[in-house]
Structure formats: C-alpha cells, structure tokens
C-alpha cells in the first residue's frame, strides 16, 4: 500500500498549505460565505484524514492489500493472541505516529475548547460587574467605554454587549442593525465554526496556509452575520454603523486586519450578490469531493 500512502501524503501537504493559500485569494467566497465556510471545513478535515491515513496505511501495509482487509487481519491475529504478527519495527513506528497525530489533533481541540471557555467565563464575570443593562433592550449590556464597539460572548450564558460610545454615536436603527448582526453570531453559534480553526492553528502554528484559513474564516463569519441584517432590511443602517464603529477584535484570527475587514464588509453590503445558487452547489460538491477522495484512497487503494 505504498502508493496509497504516498497519495495520502501528497494530499495532506497540498491541503495544509498550497490549497489554503489559493482559496484565501478567492473572492467568490464573499458572494457565498456559507459555501466558503463549508469548503474551508472540508479542507481541514480532509487534511487531517489524509495525514493520519498515510501513516495508518503504512503501519498496516504488510497485513493486507487494503486497509479494511489489513484491519480484519489485525483483529483476527489479536483474537489468536498474536496482535503484532507481521508488524515490524518500522510498521509499529508508523502506527505510533498515526496515533500521535490523531491524539495531538484531539488534544489541541480539547485544550482550545477549555481555554476559550475559561476566557469567556472570566469576561462574563467581569461584564456582570462592570456593565449595566441597556434600558432599551433587556438582553443587552452597556459597557462604559468611549469607543463605539459591539460584541457577543456565546455559550449557554451568552452576553450581548455594546459600549456607551456606540449608544452615543449610533442612531437607534444603526444600533438595531448591529444587534441583529451580533444576535446572528449567537443564534447560529458561529463560535463553533471558528473553534476548529483555532485548534488547527495551534496544532500547526508555523503554517502560512493555516493562518490564512483562520483569517478567511473570521471574515466569512462576519459576512454571514451581516447577511442576517440584510435579510432583516437593515443593510443601509449596518453600513452607516460600520462607518462609525471601531472594529471589534474578539473574533480576530490569523492576524486579519480589522480595518481592511470592515472595508471589505462595507463594499460587500453596498454591492449585494445575486445568483449564488450555482456557487453554493459548486462549493458543496467540491467539499464532498475533498472528503470522499482520501476516504476512497484509504478504503479502495486499487482506485489509484
């Protein structure tokens, strides 16, 4: 199964850097942020599957012509009391690497979740002390700060926050548009979309492709929330609010420039996209293909 392992290794390298670099320069994702996010997620999943699958195939290569047959042989040998029959030192090393990679990815995700939850808990406790309820909306807290900002803390005990500067600089329509944007983050749990990319970046901190993936995902999430305001008929009010607000950095990933991101969002709101059905279909098909190819290569190596 050496050919299978090589194919998986090539796919993992392409998905870890060159493909994210290319996709980060694409502008069609701005017209369909949902499709773009699905594609980014499939790239991350396929990269992890290809990398772990490469070493898994090498480790079980002597037990059968395909991974399913090798696994069946391995379980039979285990039942016979000789689980490592046919597995040499090099094979065992590959299996350890595959297990180590899978554990690292899982542990990094778990650690990222714990870290995010701890930060949110600290911020939530601070807000409960420093912020006051907004009289115009019982579900909103006002933080005394001169800059015009708004953000949300997602979770079971979510918080929706605006600054006193925002209440002074923005009209009621503009505030409503901003709150619609932030409520979209909460209701659609955009934090869960972003979190795997936080973990991916922690697992591969030196990858330029991963950093670009993080930056693009952060921007696409903001665009998805913008679309909620557009659907509510608040596009003009949101544009006006963006012109007066200081970009929030709570969802800043991968070093994305918040001023540039705000400019991109304003341009997109002023020039709405039409006819994104084909884009969505193409991005979903590409996402499915990205996940299907490494799976088929692992399960049916004769295909390559």
UniProtKB/TrEMBL annotation:
GO molecular function term, any single one: metal ion binding
TM helices/strands, residue ranges: 40-63, 84-107, 282-303
Top-rank taxon: Bacteria
Cofactor(s) needed: Zn(2+)
A GO biological-process term: proteolysis
CC cofactor note: Binds 1 zinc ion per subunit.
Domain Peptidase M48 residue range list: 139-216
Keywords, alphabetical: Hydrolase, Membrane, Metal-binding, Metalloprotease, Protease, Transmembrane, Transmembrane helix, Zinc
InterPro entries: Beta-lactam_resp_regulator, Peptidase_M48
Record-stated family: Belongs to the peptidase M48 family.
PANTHER family: POSSIBLE SENSOR-TRANSDUCER PROTEIN BLAR, SLR0241 PROTEIN
Listed name of the protein: Peptidase M48-like protein
Protein's organism: Antricoccus suffuscus
